[in-house]
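Feature request disguised as a bug: please show the residue count (350) next to Translocation associated membrane protein 1 in the output. Example input:
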Amino acid sequence: MGIKKKNTKNPPVLSHEFVIQNHADIVSCVAMVFLLGLILPWESQSETAVNHFHHGIKDLATVFFYMLVAIILHAIIQEYVLDKINRKMHFSKTKHSKFNESGQLGVFYLFSFGWGTSILLNEHFLSNPVNLWEGYPHLLMPFQMKFFYICQLGYWLHALPELYFQKTKKEDIPRQLVYISLYLVHIAGAYVLNMNRLGLVLLVLHYFVELVFHISRLVYFSNESRQTGFTVWAVLFVLGRLLTLSLSVLTVGFGLATSEQQGFDMAAGNFNVLLVRITVLAAICLSQAFMMWKFINFQLRRWREQRQTLTLKKKQAPAKSKSKKEKTNGVNGVTSNGADSPRVKKEKSS
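Example output, currently without the count:
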């Protein structure tokens, strides 16, 4: 009998399977072109040290480069960390995808939260909230803040091709597109409208709440009896929404509204007019309302599942006790159909 050989045939070059399997290597080659451009010597136009930066059209190339970096890092974390854990834990397909999602986002939220918090502390935005609107427009940014926004935009842009690389299910794609779009719109809006200080504070606050959720989900996958983290996350989620709305109304509705720098001037980066302020507040309020609606649905679904589990346990408990009684009756002399047990029959015959 012949031994069946394992099919090790590589997929055709530039086919869908080939691109998916080797996307990290392909993206690395593209990123090397950018790095080569940085290595080549260029004539310096200015010798003065620059400490603050503003946004511009050239940021698009930088964001694209860091989008490629994010794709490479995503593949490294997936292959060398998450896939190894998945093989040990033997998750189902549903848990497998959710574990990968929480693993990737957990690393990103942890890194972004730590980085954003260090910027807030160094720039003293937390000690004096008036800095969130005082001196608007905040056209110039320190290097760390500008780099933070560039990396944020690059990461959330990388999530779009990852839907293809990770073979995301069709029914999950609309949900993914919605929250990716929300991140891109809000981050880009704060960056372009020079509301970078408020955007940074709100991002750090939001990332902390999301970090707690994904850590709780990872702990739950390791042991389903550990659900305390979800309760902590639920409380922080509601508080996070309230703080987000409060800071937004305080900064945009009161701080900028009473600022001396009123008017619309694109060259100066000033967008402090009533229409822009109403649009910003409406976008923030609608996104927070949408998140609360999703949160309430999530909690209701959890409560239904817990109630169904408790109902099943209650139904199973009487059935088990009934079977134990039947077994006891059978041993004592009566079987389940009313006849004498073999032991009683033997005693009667004797």
